[in-house]
Design brief:
The complex is a heterodimer of chains A (about 300) and B (about 500).
Chain A lengths: L25 E2 L23 E4 L9 E5 L6 H16 L3 E4 L5 H11 L4 E4 L10 H12 L3 E4 L10 H12 L2 E4 L7 H11 L3 E4 L10 H8 L4 E2 L14 H6 L6 H8 L3 H13 L3 E4 L2 E4 L6
Parallel strand pairs in A: 3-4, 3-7, 4-5, 5-6, 7-8, 8-9
Antiparallel strand pairs in A: 1-2, 2-6, 10-11
Helix pairs in contact in A: 1-2, 4-5, 8-9
Chain B lengths: L1 E10 L2 E12 L5 E5 L4 H4 L1 H11 L8 E7 L11 H11 L11 E3 L2 E2 L5 E2 L4 H11 L2 E6 L12 E6 L2 H8 L33 H13 L3 E4 L6 H7 L9 H14 L14 E2 L7 H5 E2 L4 E2 L1 H4 L4 E4 L7 H5 L2 H6 L1 E6 L2 E6 L3 E6 L18 H9 L3 H4 L4 E4 L5 H4 L12 H18 L13 H7 L4 H13 L4 H17 L7 H8 L6
Parallel strand pairs in B: 3-4, 5-8, 8-9, 10-17, 10-18, 11-14, 14-17
Antiparallel strand pairs in B: 1-2, 2-4, 6-7, 12-13, 15-16
Helix pairs in contact in B: 2-3, 6-16, 18-20, 19-20
The chains are: A alpha/beta (about 300), B alpha/beta (about 500).
Amino acid sequence: MVYQSIYGGIPLVKTLVCYACDMDYRRVENWQDRPELIKLKDLPDPPKELYFSGKWDPELFKNCVAVVGSRRMTEYGRRVIEKIIPRLVFEKKVVVSGFMYGVDQYAHQVCLENGGKTIAVLGWGISQPLTGTDRKLAEAIVARGGLLLSEWNDQQPTLWTFPVRNRIIVALSDEVIVIEATAKSGSLITAKIAQKLKRKLWAVPGPITSPTSVGTNELIATGTAGMWLGDQPQAQKPSSDPLLRLLTSDALTPNEIARTLHQPVSEIGAQLSLLALAGTLVEQAGKYTLNHAHQS
Amino acid sequence: MLTKVSAIANVGLETVGVDVEVDVASVGFPGFTIVGLASKAIEEARERVKTALINSGFDFPPKKITVNLAPADLPKDSAAYDMPIAVGILLSSGQLPSIDLTKYFFYGELSLDGSLRPTRGILLLALYAQKQSKMTIFVPAPSAAEATVVSEIRVIPVKTVKELFNHLSGGKMIPPLKHVPVDDDLDTPSVDFDLSEIAGQEQAKRALIIAAAGGHNVLMWGPPGTGKTMLARALPGILPPLSSREALEVTRIYSISGLLSPGKALVKRRSFRAPHHGVSAAGLIGGGTNPLPGEVSLAHLGVLFLDEMPEFPRSVLESLRQPMEDGVVEIVRVSGHVKYPASFTLIAAINPCPCGYLGHPRRECKCTEKQIVKYHHRISGPILDRIDLSVPVAAVEVEKLSLTAPKSRGTLTSKQAKEAVMKTRKIQEKRFADLPIYTNSQMRNREVKKYARLTPEAENFLKLAADKYDLSARSYFRMIKVARTIADLTGTRDIGPVHMAEALQYKQRL
């Protein structure tokens, strides 16, 4: 991986320091020319300007997944997040969300706890001071190599700013997962945008008795969104890894694998655990083989 | 005339001083009575002492002889009071000139010909005498070597009563035994099996090294004849050598059990105990009217190997819970309760099914689904919860065993493994310097949180694993402990995802 210099070559127009929050922020000069932001151009109404806090790393935008949902998160929503975010982090995805309390913030938080990177797209101007837990979370996002993004400099948060920022969340991501949504949730606006931008849309099914799942269940029922069931099949690339090649046609014990590959069994064991957890391999009675269910 | 002779009684591993009071009355009907809660073995001392004295050429006084073992309310069970009683009779009947006995201990069983027989618990007597300062102990010559490891006492090895008489009456003296200092640098004698002798089973060997390094218990899982017993027997060879303090601790247990071979001073190697599955609960954890140490105590600081674990009666297995948790067993009987140390590494071997061939590459399993489930259910959750590592030991292809096959490269020897283990133990020693624990396996959740720091990636991995394999809270902590040891083996401070991933290899599959 190529590491960019600290501001990724973005020229500084002026150093804007917000004294209330003292979180440094900068403008992305000519964002339209930056290849990593090309996805934003899918929008019929792309943002005029873009501001950010944190360390700009073009790699961040390569593999984004939006995780959005209701502000009124239920226990179910909380547990769904705790289940899916670790897997996304494990797959080296960057979680994009809206930094609003509820599902958004919890998604950011769980992502950080699992050692992942996350992008928060704010529903207000970047210079607005943050306090309390918001402030702490924002600092943690930046400290772990993530970003705070906004299209405004000093816009106050108001009713219309939130739906508007949703289009950026969607545009940046390849996939959008809706955790929980009421019948009139803002997340449904997000879903609509995802549909328009042809992003893969997922919704997490919920109990039909729960008002916070009405929106998501509706998305599934109408066929707008795919049903997210936790372990999503992944496309498998023909591998150059000798270990995977060894296991394409054979079920072997760790001992046999270690012997064939002339590697210590401790390292082979660790690799096998990682691959089994990723769903690439399956283990049966002490023998490992390629997971063919995932290949199709 | 009344004589007081000092001896001891061992209650478990605790030693209590016993006064053997012998009175030979000048009046009264001839007789021989022993009082003071004496067991059958002590009652029979009357016949042994009488015959031994007569056969050694002494007079047995035809008078009223009374022996009291004080304290009178402490139950005593040992044939070792023969010697103090004999000495008491010789003195009281005036055959021996009266001497000062206050600095002497007498302890040992008599044979009818007047010679002394090997006796249990000599080391405990020596340690007790050491505390009294400037003591001389008279012990049977065959068992006297045990006492030589104790400093600041005189050990007189007695072969026969006649010899003892000569010594006490100022005739021919018996030379005391030389004190043998215990060095920390105990030479470890050869072990049963070297790791490099075992074909294949790399993962099981790795598990043994982790177990030895972090004090974890291991469950080996596989068809018969794949080397589970051999592997278990190789474990003592990779455990660090006993320190002098530990060696003494183990020797005490063997001394009280009468399992020290005559002439042997100290147990220097880590014990390997493999009780058969017919063992009773008392045999396993200790018991008897006057409780003796069981297999778990004999395996103290060593290895307890339970082959075919599900074949052990469930009640017997359940009795392992306390020693596995606390490292000691408490045995309660009518005669009182005793505590024996029992901190061991458990190696359990189980077959995959009752017939043993489930998943075997060439042989067919004949068990029904129901039988298999029932077989596995014989081991209770609480026991499994205390086993950190579980490793499959699959059937080895015959080609790998052939003697002509080139040796696989980089085969680890027990010596190399032991060095790695000792290094890892040093790290743990430092880590737990202020705590009453020694190994990673002994960490409680509080210590796990404090000493087993995970990198965020490792935590991410663990959470996913917990979700995918439905790990319980306890197995979650168990995995962290194993990962801690794996990280220690490489000398890493924080636990990384690689360590966590390897630890997941050893999760339970039952």
